[in-house]
Amino acid sequence: MQKMLHIDPAKCTGCLSCEMACSYENYGVFATAKSRIKVFDFHHTGRKVPYTCTQCDEAWCLHACPVEAITVDKVTGAKVVSESTCVGCKVCTIACPFGTINYVAETGKVQKCDLCGGQPACAEACPTGAITFIDANWTGLGKMQQWADKLGNQPAAATA
């Protein structure tokens, strides 16, 4: 059963536990700057909203990568960057419409959420349940697809 991160912004307190857990899981240090999940602070409303890679079905990042450094993990479905293959060209950062792939100057490569191999540290660390790792069918993905189809979300016609 495919699982995905589900984010409920109404439950986020802005504690940054998710960012700390992510940086520790991936780099062994507590440094929010190294996190693959970010908490956006809407100052005018006081609302905090965690955001990270949504693991798009379309995966613009994967299709844009000229060296095929982004692949799909067959177990988790996550789009994963192979650091040994990545050349740091940043084309994927431009292709991602959500801005959730980041260039890391220290390594000269990009980073993005890989769902921690199926046990996302951010979800485990979240004290309020604002970030959960749930069955993809429970997220409303099907309803969103039906709604998008009503609005004309049809495959593009093949060009000859």
From TrEMBL:
Keywords: 4Fe-4S, Electron transport, Iron, Iron-sulfur, Metal-binding, Transport
InterPro entries registered for this protein in UniProt: 4Fe4S_Fe-S-bd (IPR017896), 4Fe4S_Fe_S_CS (IPR017900), RnfB_subfamily (IPR050294)
A single MF term (Gene Ontology): 4 iron, 4 sulfur cluster binding
Keyword Iron appears in the UniProt entry: yes
Gene3D superfamilies, per the entry: 3.30.70.20
A Pfam family matched in the record: Fer4_11
Residues annotated as domain 4Fe-4S ferredoxin-type: 3-32, 44-75, 77-106, 111-136
Keyword Transcription applies: no
Name of protein: Fe-S-cluster-containing dehydrogenase component
Organism of derivation: Tepidimonas ignava
